[in-house]
Write a structure and sequence with these properties.
Blueprint lengths: L5 E7 L7 H14 L4 E7 L11 H4 L3 E2 L5 E2 L2 H9 L8 E3 H14 L9 H20 L3 E6 L9 H14 L4 E8 L2 E2 L4 E2 L2 H12 L6 E6 L5 H11 L6 E5 L6 H8 L2 H9 L9 H12 L3 E8 L9 H13 L3 E8 L8 H4 L5 E4 L8 H13 L4 E4 L1 H13 L7 E2 L9 E5 L14 E9 L4 H6 L3 E8 L1 E3 L4 H6 L3 E6 L5 E5 L6 E4 L14 H12 L3
Parallel strand pairs: 1-6, 1-7, 2-5, 2-6, 7-10, 10-11, 12-13, 12-14, 14-15, 15-23, 16-17
Antiparallel strand pairs: 3-4, 8-9, 17-20, 18-19, 18-21, 21-22, 22-23
Helix pairs in contact: 1-3, 1-9, 4-5, 5-6, 12-18, 14-15
The protein binds glutamine.
The site of glutamine has 10 residues, from β19.
Amino acid sequence: MAGRTKYVFVTGGVVSSIGKGITASSLGRLLKGRGHKVFMQKFDPYINVDAGTMSPRQHGEVFVTEDGGETDLDLGHYERFIDQNLTKLSNITAGKIYREVIEKERRGDYLGATIQVIPHITDAIKGEIATAAEESKADIVIVEIGGTVGDIESLPFLEAIRQWRHDMGRKNTLYIHNTLVPYLKAAKELKSKPTQHSIKELKSLGIQPDILVLRTERPLDEEVKDKISLFSDVESGAVIEARDESIIYEAVTSLKRQGLDQLVCRHFGFPEQEADLSDWIRFVESIKNAKSEVSIAVVGKYVGTKDAYISLTEALRHAGFHHGVKTRLMFISTDDLDEKNIERKLQGVQGIVIPGGFGSRGSYEKILACRHAREKNIPLLAICYGMHMLVAEYARNVLGLEGAASFEANPKTPHPVIHLSPEQKDETFMGGTLRLGRHEMALADGSLAREIYGARSIGERHRHRYRLNDNYADALVEAGLVISARSTKDDVAEIVELPGHPFYIGVQYHPEYASRPNRAHPLFAAFIAKAIEQKT
Ligand code: GLN
């Protein structure tokens, strides 16, 4: 166990979705800004072994790490805020822990023992924290506990982090509790009672918070802070306000202003020093100063769900910041699109994005959008399932292959231009069996992709089962589509593009996962550059 490692645990109270992930990520950024090595980990109390089998409708986007982990979307925040690639080790679910313990039991590792939540499950949880510290060699490991204190499912995780302080000592551990202080319009008052209850609950589990981060839509006055400080035994200087920010990246500077990193570093006995946030402040300023806008349509089927396309949304915004413009996003549901209204719905947009997706619903409408972009010379970036639809549209309307489709969208198609990857044929399990994570690819000389990346070979993150059917590759190429990248190991068509069009690119991978606020992804940057050139 890395003896010198310090541990910060972030728990949440009152309600979910209060921005625990942003608090944890902002702290990570601040500590990195002070020159510390940081690693981040999220524990999710659900029984799924990973987030890969969950619908974005329920849980938002599935974030994919380079090593192929299908993870909670908070990892996307972590990576974007601390500007660092994380791994599967950064997202541990209750399902994964239970599976590990049950497999050990079956193997006979515990022969004779009765397997229980305490100590076996809690030990397995602690084992993951220890591994994170050991493998990352970080100075500070920040662990966020998913869910809300008071949930039955969270209990083993909270017990494990309680024990962690006992095992590691007070000086090496710190608890931050994130809660909500609602404003009641009728009473014209901020209400601290839910926070009081949540802290009481936490204390009853043996955890005394060191810092409170209180989400609020109104400023917390000293009176409220003092009141919360008094009943929680948290010194009032450690009661911090997290206001709703219009730009999430401002959370970093706001928490710094209130001394969050200073509190943490003092607790751990780290030397006093300022976090260097000059880069961060510069890009937040550039976001604020952006005068003009670029309007981009995202045509997808989960558009009504908050966070279903969060990495994509952020990547498009980062690319806007990169060019000094605000990206105005129009989310267009495939449920509302048809031949008759497409012209009107996409009126004035300067670029169209077709995001990833699964199943057959929405495929026809995505094909319509690809056609619209192709025929009207509107920049198009089609990602994963979007690329599949781009290829199907081209096969249908340029190559003349009637009914051409992705096998996923129509298993009866006479022309499966996108088909199941051969190595997937015998796969019967759905969880964790897609083509996942980083794959290397070679870019074709003379292609737009090669020019955009400015490199011969690149690696990008993937999450798919279907791929371009190479039986149709020659015909597609003859008809004018360029396959501008193939993976080096398994020869998957990774990028297609259409010469002569301002920007018509489909990618088999997900570039959005690799975009950073201060470092826009080249593909998104190039796409937005072309979109800016379009007249509205
Ligand atoms: N459903 C498609 C596949 O499995 C695309 C997945 C995606 O868009 N991420 O290949």
